[in-house]
């Protein structure tokens, strides 16, 4: 496992992060989830990402149990705030001071830790003044409940405004967590250049495009039993935009490139996002421990420029590059 600095900070994280969105507390049983975390630790992963909204707080609880007994200083624990939690009342969502300060205490209790290494704004809140949000974050850092502050799916302009406020309040905004993969490159035109300027790293989610880039979905073929595309709890909706014959056919064209590097298609996908110098870590999830072991092999891989060009040629115009897609990630109201 290799490690990278997170933003313009002294914090190093594993370049593969284990994330438990759509799995812990919902898709897989707790024993399997704990086995996946153990596999991650055994593979050298030290960085773990979750959110209070995942499985309506259950994912944090499972991760806290799975990490119980580990030396706290040897792991980096990330969580997020924004999404609706608990009974989903009118103040149980967003980035208000009330919701942030109440949410951090709940997350720490579920994760069984005194602090998180990174506390992230899961989306941008259009209904709360940005000053209020960053004042709450600054207070949490000064209280020692979080060491650093990050965001997720913020636009270049939002990152610029947030970084300026963070600096004014004496805290560090060091990360953004966007979707990024060979198929979804919307951050490249605006978010990445702005982040480089501001000293912000990307911690990217869905590097294998919800499993599409593993090549297990063939055009015209039946969906594999138990796969994300068959998950009616949310996975099928997330993957649907990639489940077209054109996309699936082009993904199959990546197989000879992966073979040249002695990688699986999943390993190629994870290695590909790590070629971007602004990416500090790629988040992988797993429903089985062996999936963790496979994806970790992408750490330290260098893809030659010639093969990067061939990946672009194989995928062609199915790649989504529109930077406006990031703007669509955050709801314009809390009720949305």
How would you describe this structure to a colleague?
The termini are far apart. By secondary structure, this protein is an alpha/beta fold. Helix 5 packs parallel to helix 6. It is built from 13 helices and 10 strands. Helix content is 37%, strand content 13%. It has one domain (3-327): NADP-dependent oxidoreductase domain (TIM Barrel, Alpha-Beta Barrel), CATH 3.20.20.100. The protein has an 8-stranded parallel beta barrel with strand order 3-4-5-6-7-8-9-10, surrounded by 6 helices. Strands 1-2 form a two-stranded antiparallel sheet. The longest helix is centred in the first third of the chain and has 15 residues, at 97-111.
Provide the spatial order of strands within the biggest beta sheet: 3-4-5-6-7-8-9-10
Name the CATH architecture: Alpha-Beta Barrel
Proportion of residues in helical segments? 25-40%
CATH class: Alpha Beta
Count of domain modules: 1
Q: Report the total helices.
A: 13
Parts with pLDDT < 50 across at least 5 consecutive residues: none
Number of extended strands: 10
Rg is 19 Å
Distance between the termini: 40 Å
Helix-strand sequence: EEEHEHEHEHEHEHEHHHHEHHH
How much β-strand is present in the residues?
5-15%
**Helix vs. strand class:** alpha/beta
Tell me, rounded to a whole number, the average pLDDT: 92
């Amino acid at each position: 496992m290799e490690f990278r600095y997170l933003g313009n900070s002294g914090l190093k994280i594993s370049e593969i992060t284990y994330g438990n969105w759509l799995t812990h507390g919902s898709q897989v049983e707790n024993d399997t989830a704990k086995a996946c975390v153990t596999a991650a630790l055994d593979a050298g992963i030290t960085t773990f990402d979750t959110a209070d909204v995942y499985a309506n707080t259950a994912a944090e609880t499972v991760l806290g149990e799975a990490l119980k007994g580990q030396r706290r200083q040897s792991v980096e624990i990330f969580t997020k705030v924004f999404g609706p939690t608990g009974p989903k009342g009118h103040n149980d969502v967003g980035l208000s001071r009330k919701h942030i300060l109440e949410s951090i205490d709940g997350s720490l209790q579920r994760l069984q830790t005194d602090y998180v290494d990174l506390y992230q704004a899961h989306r941008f809140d259009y209904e709360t003044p940005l000053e209020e949000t960053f004042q709450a974050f600054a207070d949490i850092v000064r209280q020692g409940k979080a060491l650093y502050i990050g965001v997720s799916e913020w636009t270049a302009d939002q990152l610029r405004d947030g970084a300026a406020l963070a600096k004014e309040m004496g805290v560090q905004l060091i990360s953004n967590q966007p979707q990024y993969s060979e198929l979804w490159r919307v951050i490249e035109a605006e978010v990445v250049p702005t982040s480089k300027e501001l000293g912000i790293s990307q911690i990217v989610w869905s590097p294998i495009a919800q499993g599409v880039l593993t090549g297990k979905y063939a055009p015209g073929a039946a969906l594999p039993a138990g796969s994300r595309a068959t998950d009616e709890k949310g996975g099928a909706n997330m993957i649907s935009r990639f489940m077209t014959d054109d996309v699936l056919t082009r993904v199959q064209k990546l197989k000879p490139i992966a073979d040249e590097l002695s990688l699986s298609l999943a390993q190629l996908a994870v290695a590909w996002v790590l070629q971007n110098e602004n990416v500090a870590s790629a988040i992988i999830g797993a429903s089985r421990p062996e999936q963790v072991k496979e994806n970790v092999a992408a750490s330290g891989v260098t893809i030659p420029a010639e093969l990067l060009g061939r990946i672009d040629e194989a995928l062609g115009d199915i790649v989504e590059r529109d930077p406006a897609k990031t703007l669509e990630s955050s709801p314009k109201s809390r009720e949305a």
